[in-house]
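Exercise 7.
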Amino acid sequence: QVQLVESGGGLVQAGGSLRLSCAASGRTSSSYAMAWFRQAPGKEREFVAAITWSGTSTYYADSVKGRFTISRDNAKNTVYLQMNILKPEDTAVYYCAARIRDIATVKDMYYYWGQGTQVTVSS
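Solution. The predicted structure, written as tokens, is:
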């Protein structure tokens, strides 16, 4: 089992930046791909970004490409999401997720989830 805890959410003005963190604990010796998803009120949970266990490959949703950066520090069992040039449409609860081995962009392919952290972008 892996436990995931997100932090770093908050209220920011449009054009601003936030950095989310996701700390993993438990069975972290396995090779997990990590991802961020988000869910706005009344909408489906959608893929944002993913990173391989080694950190050498990343993948982004078109809506965040060029503005968000996913990274990880395996020594700290932590994954980050640096969010720049934030827009009101980025407002959502952001979730960290983990799965063994390969990157995926479909939420049903992730086994472990955090509780989420709220990001609100004001216009």
